[in-house]
Write the structure tokens for this entry.
Amino acid sequence: MLCEAPEPIADLHYLDHAAISPLRPAAVEAMVGMAHDLGNPFSVHSVGRRARCHLEECREEIAELLHALPTEVIFVGSGTEANNIALQGTALARSQQRILISSIEHPSVTETAAHIAATSSRTVEKLPVSDTGMIHMDALQESLDTGQDPLVVAVHHANNEIGSIQPIQRIAELTAEKGIPFHIDAVQALGHIPVSFAHPGFTTMSFASQKFGGPTGIGILLARRGAPLVAPFKGGSQERELRPGTQNLLGVLGMTAALREAVDNQQAEEKRLAELRRKLISGIHAIVPQAVVNGPAETEQNDTRTVLPNIVSVSFPGCDGDGLVMFLDGKDISVSMGSACTEGVAEPSDILLATGMSEQQARSTIRLSMGYTTSEENIDAFLGVLPQVVERAHRASLD
């Protein structure tokens, strides 16, 4: 084989949970337990009926965990696919011309919105954000008051690079008042802060299994019954015809087990990770005083958290982010520059630039993200090598 023999994640200091969180043992157990008893949930024989029973039990459990109805749970292939179905499905169902998104959305939202605009003569309007990545609510209100309702408003629950948490309840109140569909990308939020589909102003919401310790290749779209959605592709009646095709039952089983564990432990994990985040930030500032931590400060407004407890975006002036990632990898520490969907792209992050950051600062930024496997040992290991890594990256940027 051409691939190098990997070190198990457990043997590394893995600080890239926002890209993918290691598979939880509960998910492995759930999948292995059904691996030799797998049928097509749409077959009418006993094996198929048994598979259908497992599928619907998972749907009911997920609905309970996310405060939704079982009929609102749609199994999809990924968070990206969920965002595509939500936005393209709405575009097929409604005739309005404006697509309203924040300026710091994930590529699966920004690129889908751009595609819809390019192929249907619509326009994309991006809501500005503050330097900490928070949507300017007055700009949203102004855009909604133009007299021309948007096709859809799409805002993520929490940002995947800087961790800013948007006031989705307030946004839902504004959109619901005008009957505008509201899509929420909740991929990075689930498992780290409370997430609920209970608000009647939420139209659709997307999730990705691998972000909370489930398997890859499976995700969730929550779609309100009666939501204006037309399937963007055809092929079968599965999943309310919004995602036709044979369901990935093993993936659903693993995802459900991981979700149950993540939700049950969410409150304790939020507190634990927030403490690790504070230790990480204070350690960085003590070692590299000129380092800049991006995103909202860790404060709570009216008992509402404004930044995810597991993400730290930090800029190291005079260093190149790619170099920092590479040098840290040489020390068995895994971090990233941002979204794995744009990793390896030479251009600076659009998300960071949208907050008003200069290209130079954006290029000097790395993201550290924690999860259920993260320990103080991992944080200590990162801080222990940080001085030499920053010095080496600084020297490399001068060459």
